[in-house]
Amino acid sequence: MNIHPEFHRFLNRHDKQVLLRQRGIVVWLCGLSGSGKSTIANAAERVLYQQGRVTVILDGDNLRSGLNSNLGFSDEDRLENIRRIAETAKLFVSQGIITFVSAITPRGELRDLVRGLLGADLFEVYVEASYATCEKRDVKGLYAKAARGEIAHFTGKDGSFEPPQNPALVLNTETSSVQDAAFELLEAITDRISINPEL
Ligand code: ADP
């Protein structure tokens, strides 16, 4: 093979985490379009920013205009879309950065891939809201388009969404406010992002 990884020469994750005084984690938010993934990531990130934490949000929609612009919504492309997002998240978390991913991630197969790539760094969150609620919110006008038959394989309609079997956390955005959901999430990851005094 002509590939020679050079990881041993670089400053490592431990060095970065000591610098940042935090531990990296990937908070992967999955759920229907309009369920509240980006809104919650944004609210949680702002609180962490106030606390002096370094974060990044990888938003599935945004990445589709750049890194993933050559991908569509077939099963194969969704898999590649998620693989690239997970690999990108892996790069960030390897630098000690608290990484939020907001991506529908509709099937178990996709989440298995994510788990395989991120292992113990993954904190899987199911942002739950019914199709009817998301349709009512219709933040991006996609549900109206889907109702008119203008979107093929729309998740929750003719493209299935399989709820995760064993997420680390479920945030129901029909029963919790944005603020409450964000605080619940932050409380759940506090220990995971705090650095050990002996580090
Ligand atoms: P997604 O990223 O999952 O596609 P967005 O975050 O873009 O969804 O949109 C969610 C919409 O739902 C926003 O307009 C937000 O204000 C609204 N919303 C209402 N209640 C909540 C809640 N508890 N948590 C998150 N979003 C909520």
* Helix-strand makeup class: alpha/beta
**What is the arithmetic mean of pLDDT?**
94
Q: Termini separation (Å)?
A: 36 Å
Q: Uncertain regions: pLDDT < 50 for 5+ in a row?
A: none
The CATH architecture can be given as 3-Layer(aba) Sandwich
CATH C-level label: Alpha Beta
Describe this structure in words.
This protein is α/β, with parallel strands linked by helices. It has a single domain (10-190), classed as P-loop containing nucleotide triphosphate hydrolases (Rossmann fold), CATH 3.40.50.300. It is built from eight helices and five strands; from the N terminus they run αβαβααβαβααβα. Strands 2-3-1-4-5 form a five-stranded parallel β-sheet, with helices on both faces. It starts with 12 loop residues before the first helix and ends in a 6-residue tail after the last helix. Bound molecules: adenosine-5'-diphosphate. Adenosine-5'-diphosphate is lined by residues 31, 33-40, 102, 127, 137, 139, 173, 176-178, 181.
